Amino acid sequence: MGKDPNRPVILQDIAKATGYTINTVSRALKDKDDISRETCAYIQRVAREMGYVRNYLASSLRSGRTKTLAMIAGSMMNPFYAILMDLIQREAVQYGYTLFILCSQDDPETELKAVQMALSRQVDGILITPCSFESPALSLLRESHIPFVLLSRFQEGSRDDCVYCNDEEGGYLAARHLIETGHRKVAMLTHRQVVFSSRKRFTGFRQACLDAGIPEEDIGYACLQDPDEILAQLKAWIAAGFNGLFSFCDVEAWGTITLLENNGFRVPDDLHVIGFDNILGYINFTKPICSVDCHLQDEARIAIELIRNRIHDPSLPPQQVVIPVDFVSRCR
Prior knowledge:
Distance between the termini: 75 Å
CATH architecture of the largest domain: 3-Layer(aba) Sandwich
CATH class of the largest domain: Alpha Beta
Number of helices: 12
Number of domains: 3
Shape: elongated
Helix content: 40-55%
Oligomer: single chain
């Protein structure tokens, strides 16, 4: 009796078609070293031609692992997260992992539901950019004992694995660039207080200014979300002689530039605006800006290394990796 065309292809079907045992077929499909390369190639080719699809659920029941990772990020509307997700996906697939993407919208309740969803899918590990260190999502992760890694975040005194760029160094480099290009009254603008990063970036920014002899009154800082309030602050800074602005990230920098130009200001003549993340290093925008490069490719690679290490050895001491940053000048 032939194979039922409505039934999925199973290992027994491939074994019958190739003349090899089920065990040999199974090991060849997994590229095991004890099966010759020629045999592996032959069995894999026959399996493809027969329409074989590996049953990962059955594999996970046998191994206790699903080969699935969850990534919980703020929002895919921000290219920063989209780029980081894409880079992590590329790293994960090299080790046979599937990436399960969830967005928290930087809301603690949504973030908690995302963690609960990931846990219900029995993922092997979770990569998360927490919106707050007081988030109930982090408490749940610690209580569940599932391997997890914090992305772009660091909490002093914690015992969590994490990978993040040197935000303070980035802020320092941003201020130094503005100062070296002739700006002596400078400010930093952020749309919201991003846990850990906002404080660290301004700390570095302020220190570079002080090191250059710039007085405190010529170092501005504002955290504003409302466009009208942002515009009012920008006008006040410009009227006071400020001519250099460090935006928390590239997306906010582009938003600020658009707001200024739509209201009759000239960038960079009236205000030189720079960003952070170096998004232009990954995707093309028509409006180039100077930016701090936080090396997202390195963050993705290290994040996968950390989560794999934690999955395979839960007893490892916490690993906290800081990625150096560089400044990319696109001034014309």
